[in-house]
Amino acid sequence: MSEDKKKPPAQVFLNFSFFKVDPKWRWLNEIGRDEAAKEFASLVEVANTKMKVRTYSTLGLRADADFMIWMISDNVEKMQVMASKIYSTVFGKYIESSHVFLSASRPSVYANKTTPGFMTDEPPMKYVVVYPFIKSREWYLMPFEERKQMMEEHIAVGRKYPQVRLNTTYSFGIGDQDFMLAFETPDLVVFQELIMRLRETQVSKYIVRDTPMIPCVHKNIEDIVKSLG
């Protein structure tokens, strides 16, 4: 079943798992690498019948990660099964986790008419930029109406960049961050312009952390594995 035809249920968990490849992988012979790539691609294909799985390359874009697997599921146990099966493959013996971010979907209290991109039938865009996001405690202690007014400014800026698709999810209680942001776009320069504009909004005063900010390129997992050696 295609990843783009499986619409997640109303409440889902998201897992952004980044991996680094051991240099020893490149010493395997070409036939061994090709067979391992096919095995790994088969695993992703099967997993994609049980949940939504998207794969991205970060090769050459980060020193701490070579690829990312974005899982969207109705429970975290399916993600754990996937992680276990990853490490049981030949390719899995040559990779290690560098970042894992867990979050959950829920309606926004500021823009309840906004549907995250991953909950639509839209296909993945060429790029996604993923990053954890933490606001200060002062933000949450302010009256809701004050926060809402500042968020309206923030949202208005975002609407000026329709080429960028927002996926905001929540990590309160299940991750170190408050939110996980995943901005999809066909153009990284447009996304950069959006971030520069958002820095000028009132909300930016209450940002404690929004790193690591990781750009990813959407690719077939077999191609990703073959590109690594």
What does the model show?
By secondary structure, the protein is of the alpha+beta class. It folds into two domains: 13-104 and 217-227, Apc35880, domain 1 (Alpha-Beta Plaits), CATH 3.30.70; 117-215, 2-Layer Sandwich (Alpha-Beta Plaits). It has six helices and nine strands. It has helices at 30-47, 76-88, 137-141, 144-159, 188-198, 221-227; strands at 13-21, 52-57, 67-73, 95-104, 127-135, 165-170, 179-185, 207-209, 214-218. Strands 1, 2, 3, 4, 5, 6, 7, 8 and 9 form a nine-stranded antiparallel sheet that branches. Strand 6 and strand 7 form a beta hairpin. Helix 1 packs antiparallel against helix 6 (221-227).
CATH topology of the largest domain: Alpha-Beta Plaits
Q: Please indicate the percent range of residues in DSSP E strands (runs of 2 or more).
A: 25-35%
Class from helix and strand fractions: alpha+beta
List SSEs in N-to-C order.
EHEEHEEHHEEHEEH
What spatial form do the alpha-carbon principal axes imply? elongated
Number of strands: 9
How would you name the CATH homologous superfamily of the largest domain?
A: Apc35880, domain 1
What kind of sheet is the major sheet? 9 strands, antiparallel
Q: Which percent bin holds the helix content?
A: 25-40%
Span between N and C termini? 29 Å
Average residue-wise pLDDT: 93
